[in-house]
Amino acid sequence: MQMSDGQGGSVTSYAYKASLIGSAHRFELTDEGLSWHIAGRSGLWRYDEISAIRLSFRPVSMQQHRFRADLSHAKGGRIAILSTSWQTAALMAPQDNGFRDFIVALHARMAKAGSRVELTAGLGRKTYAAVLAFLALLALAMAGLLIRALLIGEFAGVLFILGFAALFVWQVGGFVRRNRPRSYSFDQLPRSLLP
């Protein structure tokens, strides 16, 4: 959301509830920097003090379409900004447009300030390699079960394994594809990691 700060500058803001209990996490992009209010604490990070931004796709059981931005401060400290907000005990609402607009505006302000931030997307390289290794082992195990079911003529088992594999590829494949580790630039934000 864009608004005036009363002194001629514009302020872009974003808020979400990370849990049912507690206040919303609020963020504002001001001319001075990123202003944040989280769990009774607040601060202002100048744009040149933000040392790293990592964008990722992080679905959870209550919201399969959830994105995350992790910001790191040069002197330590980390802030997570999520694209969903808790509404009730059973409802986590997406805030796609607000999240995307805020993240794009943050990058634009940092580029304008001449920031030398490290911009990365997806999972860390070691985590991603571990995920791929686990998926390869799982694929081998599933292939073994499929071959065994075919050899003993258990066609109901074959159908179950094929159905499970298709569902698994559909669910996990998007996560793996979107979270491929890579770097990006201010003018080339990764579209797959923004709602």
UniProtKB/TrEMBL annotation:
It comes from the Bacteria. This is Bll5862 protein. Keywords: Membrane, Transmembrane, Transmembrane helix. The lineage of its organism: Bacteria, Pseudomonadati, Pseudomonadota, Alphaproteobacteria, Hyphomicrobiales. The chain crosses the membrane at residues 128-149, 155-176.
